[in-house]
Design goal:
406 residues; 84% helix; single chain; globular; mainly alpha
């Protein structure tokens, strides 16, 4: 098993690298999506539409990626996805240059499709590691977003200055950086992700079968989700994601309305993304040590606190703290839920079921993004945050009931 463990470490390292590069690209764009949406559409209540389109594209393609990952392998699927991300970034850059909102949304579709593929990388890490190390493996990939949280938001300003010197809207700079980062990530995966995690995962499953993954027969997705543990995992990831998106998407526009500069907005988003990824090393190990349920419970409680804290003040420091907690709560729900779901699946059930899970997560995210713009335009930022806190109560309650019954 020593050889399998060595291969697993290498695969996890490559997945960490691609997650770092891709996250930096996605976060650089996400920092400005609502601002670009408002400027190109000329309507504040359309500010959340680009992110919603991005998330919907990711949601509907996630299930497809599950089959693609089974057909051409994890390596081929990730390279294809990252290539789509580079192409989408190029389209959004061009759209801003020509001031076309429809073309910009087309680029968002491609970037959403790419993100769905990248997110499945965390499950590739889980399948090549031993069951007792899955939480750590997922967290080691997710923590790659820490690099993105540092690089992504802070390149928006300097990159904007560079393209501004070319006579192009400064908002386009971040999307050019995204293109470059996706291209580099595709090369890293193409060269480094060998052997394919799909094949190693089969070997690990043969030597270390997990009781929770069934009797050996391939179950339908609905049959799997009827299991309490699988249902708890999905609810935690879906609503944790929706709460995070509701608040995060519109915060940059909220700050813009309070006359904050791009550097201030970038700092707040950076604190949020730092909270999303930097503590993955802790959440993954806690999921392995304490169990999946307690970690999800902590994440849900943190989301509630974050939503309430976001209403305190529109100043940079209070919002930075609130958005940091928002990211941290999402991380615990995401890592705990992902690990709990991975525990329930056999090798032949993984990609298909995990893709369907990410479809639900993406749909919830898109709904959150659309709701954020509508609630913000009609009722204001604080009411949107209170609504988000209400949604965060659902996974908290569900996990608490499941843990007591278990």
């Amino acid at each position: 098993m020593t050889n399998l463990e060595s291969i697993a470490r290498k695969i996890t390292g490559i997945l960490f690298a691609q997650q770092s590069l891709a996250s930096a690209g996605f976060i650089a764009a996400a920092t400005l999506n609502s601002i670009v949406g408002k400027e190109l559409s000329q309507h504040a209540n359309w500010a959340g539409v680009p992110t919603a389109v991005y998330l919907l594209a990711g949601a509907f393609s996630a299930f497809m990626w599950g089959y693609v990952f089974d057909a051409i392998g994890r390596r081929g699927g990730l390279v294809t996805g990252l290539t789509a991300g580079a192409l989408g970034s190029g389209v959004t850059f061009y759209a801003i240059a020509i001031q076309s909102f429809p073309v910009f949304l087309g680029g968002m579709v491609l970037m959403g499709i790419a993100n769905a593929a990248v997110q499945l990388g965390r499950f590739a890490a889980a399948e090549v590691n031993l069951p007792e190390h899955r939480g750590r493996a997922i967290s080691n990939v997710v923590i790659g977003g820490t690099v993105g949280s540092v690089i992504g938001p802070f390149v928006a300003g300097p990159a904007g200055g560079i393209v501004g010197a070319w006579g192009i809207n400064e908002l386009a700079g971040a999307y050019l950086v995204s293109l470059i980062l996706f291209a580099i990530a595709a090369v890293v995966v193409f060269i480094g992700l060998r052997p394919d995690p799909r094949e190693i995962g089969k070997q690990v499953a043969e030597k270390f079968p997990v009781a929770g993954s069934g009797t050996g027969e391939v179950r339908s997705v609905l049959e799997i989700f009827r299991q309490p543990a699988a249902l708890v995992a999905v609810v935690s990831m879906v609503l944790g994601q929706m709460v995070m998106v509701l608040v995060m998407v519109i915060t940059s526009l909220h700050m813009r309305d309070h006359q904050h500069e791009l550097t201030d907005i970038s700092a707040v988003i950076a604190s949020h993304t730092f909270g999303m990824y930097a503590f993955s090393i802790i959440s993954g190990r806690l999921a392995d040590r304490w169990g999946r349920g307690p970690v999800i419970l902590i994440g849900s409680a943190t989301l509630i606190v974050a939503c309430v804290a976001a209403t305190i003040s529109p100043d940079v420091l209070p919002l930075s703290v609130a958005l940091f907690l928002l990211g941290l709560g999402w991380n615990f729900c995401f890592v705990g839920g992902s690990t709990l779901l991975a525990d329930q699946l056999s090798p032949l059930e993984r990609s298909r079921t995990q893709g369907f899970n990410d479809l639900l997560v993406g749909l919830a995210s898109a709904l959150g993004s659309l709701e954020s713009g509508i609630i913000f335009a009609s009722l204001g930022y604080n009411m949107m945050a209170y609504v988000s806190a209400g949604f965060a109560l659902v996974p908290f309650t569900v996990v608490l009931i499941w843990m007591r019954r278990k």
